[in-house]
């Protein structure tokens, strides 16, 4: 039985093996209790925290998995186990955040006391080790702002374009990904913003596309740190959901803020860089092939 932080395991033992109960292990842990049944069988009970017994953590999407093994070791530890049985627990954490999603890792750039970051992930299990993307596959692009001692901050991807160069010029050829503060690519394909782990970071789950200017692209984004309570038509993150239309990422009850996604949204002036309410940072990711 898997709980949020603990696991309880009952292992029934054949009468011939009852005398070897001390050689049963969960990872490197011995049974916490042993019962002898009237049938001559035994029951080895393991009751441990998931932080104990050398459990291994694995992250897949929104799920956190814990892996271990039950083993019977009649010989010394240097010898292989005579019997192995896999154990796996899984749950969706409420507030647990993978270490690589915590602001404070990855490439950083600071301005005005705030540190912004943007990076390509490897299918949500860590930082990507390659910049070569299969056409049609998904590119998880993570962006964050370090909270440090600031008031709570909401990280928004204000505008994003793909371009063939690491620097944008007035005449640069660009392909719009996020415009009007809305994820335009969610209308064209299956791209979307993933639900947040915390307000100061966001993951753009971008389906790779064939750009109109060759295979090599750079993703340019304006990252905005904003007051979480200050959402409006000019400061928001919107996804297009095929069945229902445009939805606000952070509170679907206010999805009406996304009504202008296909027209022209009113733009509110950004507060000054010294303001505690907001700050903008230009970020570039690439080259991606």
TrEMBL record:
Keyword field: Disulfide bond
Molecular function GO terms recorded: acrosin binding
GO biological process entries: binding of sperm to zona pellucida; egg coat formation; positive regulation of acrosome reaction
Looking up Pfam families in the UniProt record yields: Zona_pellucida (PF00100)
State if Disulfide bond is listed as a keyword.
yes
> What sequence ranges are listed for the domain ZP?
1-245
The yes or no answer to whether the keyword Disulfide bond is present is: yes
GO-annotated cellular components: extracellular matrix
**PANTHER family, from UniProt?**
SI:CH211-14A17.6-RELATED, ZONA PELLUCIDA SPERM-BINDING PROTEIN 3
**UniProt protein name:** ZP domain-containing protein
């Amino acid at each position: 039985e898997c709980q949020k932080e603990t696991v309880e395991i009952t292992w029934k033992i054949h009468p011939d093996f009852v005398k070897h109960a001390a050689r049963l292990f969960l990872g490197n842990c011995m049974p916490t209790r042993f019962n002898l049944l009237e049938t001559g069988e035994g029951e080895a009970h393991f009751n441990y925290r998931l932080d104990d017994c050398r459990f291994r953590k694995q992250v897949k999407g929104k799920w956190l998995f814990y892996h271990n093994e039950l083993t019977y070791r009649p010989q010394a530890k240097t010898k292989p186990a005579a019997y192995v049985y896999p154990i796996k627990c899984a749950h969706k954490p409420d507030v647990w955040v993978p270490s690589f999603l915590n602001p404070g890792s990855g490439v950083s750039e600071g301005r005005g006391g705030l540190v912004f970051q943007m990076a390509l992930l490897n299918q949500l299990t860590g930082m990507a080790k390659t910049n070569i993307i299969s056409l049609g596959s998904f590119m998880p692009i993570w962006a964050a702002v370090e909270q440090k001692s600031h008031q709570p901050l909401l990280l928004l991807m204000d505008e994003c374009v793909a371009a063939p160069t690491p620097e944008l010029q007035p005449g640069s050829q660009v392909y719009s990904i996020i415009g009007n503060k809305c994820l335009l690519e969610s209308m064209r394909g299956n791209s979307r913003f993933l639900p947040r782990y915390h307000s100061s970071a966001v993951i753009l789950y971008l389906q790779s596309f064939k750009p109109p200017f060759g295979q090599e692209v750079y993703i340019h984004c304006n990252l905005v740190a904003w007051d979480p309570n200050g959402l409006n038509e000019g400061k928001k993150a919107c996804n297009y959901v095929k069945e229902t239309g445009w939805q606000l990422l952070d509170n679907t009850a206010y999805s009406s803020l996304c009504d202008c996604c296909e027209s022209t949204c009113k733009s509110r002036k950004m507060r000054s860089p010294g303001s505690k309410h907001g700050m903008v940072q230009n970020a570039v990711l690439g080259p991606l092939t």
